[in-house]
Amino acid sequence: MSPQQRDALDAMLRSAPRSQTPPTLEEQRTGFATAITRPAPAGVATRGTVLGGRPALELEPAELSGQGRLLYLHGGGYVIGSPDTHAGLVGELARRAGLRTVSVDYRLAPERPFPAAVDDGLAAYRELLDTGTDPRDLVVAGDSAGGGLSIATLLAARDAGLPQPAAVAVFSPWVDLTLAGGSIRAKEGVDPIFLETDLRAYADLYLGEGDRAQPLASPVFADLTGLPPLLVQVGANELLLDDAVRLAGRAGADDVEVTLEIGPGLPHVFQHHYGRLDEADAALERAALFLTAHLSAGHPETAD
User: Fold this and answer.
1) Residues 213-268: pLDDT tens digits?
2) Least confident span in 52-66, 155-169, 290-304
């Protein structure tokens, strides 16, 4: 990353200084939407729909690579965010991959705590299969909490006896709500976005007094056997670095094909900065190639 890119990235990340007064939940949701939202890129049509009983956003690139479909689960700590806040990022991934994409507005905590998000992810995945999408033609992706939810959704699908998709890609996945990763502390002050207290507050709202190590909440503790090929992308300058590293290690130990990419000097879900940061564009291009390459790699194994 050039000094000019670093200066620009730092300016974007620090443009909204922390208030001394903790924001309300509504203020957090509004502030996140203001800071993150970018429109879908030119050449990607959007329309509202319903999937798995939840509102969703369909994104369709003008140039399609084939019959493939992408199911996307957005980030936001299970508390904030929506398909609208992520329309730019998801649309850019869809455009690069040439895939019809649907981004699900799963239920958020604290109004709908765990396992509502997992139930919604599974319902969306099940409906895609039930309405004729061949799992060989289906891939899944998500960022941050949506990355953890992507893995949890596929675990729930496996346990329900559903076939796995062709591949899954996750950006800066939050997969350990116990916050046991060493980078949670080692990267404090280096991560320009999060403090440990931020992550703990989101986990409190999502799980309350529930067991934070249960596999569908913290997939890093799950048996990942039978999941499809996995791509994990993460920045070196983020609290969740060890979540990504340990997820990749767990997947490898469970005989899952896995690719781990760590971006030096990069923050949480740096892919949001596509068009502004060369590393973001390159990462999204690699993710698109990973997903489309596996669409034609053969039928994934069906869970027992």
Assistant:
1) 999 999 999 999 999 999 999 999 999 999 999 999 999 999 999 999 999 999 99
2) 290-304
Q: Kindly name the residue from 60, 82, 103, 144 that is annotated as catalytic.
A: 144
> Which entry of 74, 86, 268, 272 is annotated as an active-site residue?
268
Mean pLDDT for all residues in the chain: 93
Catalytic position from the list 74, 86, 92, 238: 238
For residue 287, the SS3 value is helix
- Residue 144 annotated as catalytic: yes
**For position 15, what pLDDT does the model report?**
43
pLDDT, tens digit, 9 for 90 and up, residues 107-135:
999 999 999 999 999 999 999 999 999 99
* 172 is an active site residue: no
Query: Nearest Cα to 227, choosing from 214, 212, 215, 239?
Result: 215
Q: What's the chain's Rg over C-alpha atoms?
A: 18
Known catalytic membership, residue 299: no
pLDDT higher than threshold 50 for residue 49:
yes
The DSSP string of 164-201 is: P-SEEEEES----TT---THHHHTTTT-SS--HHHHHH
Residues 75/143, Cβ–Cβ less than 8 Å: yes
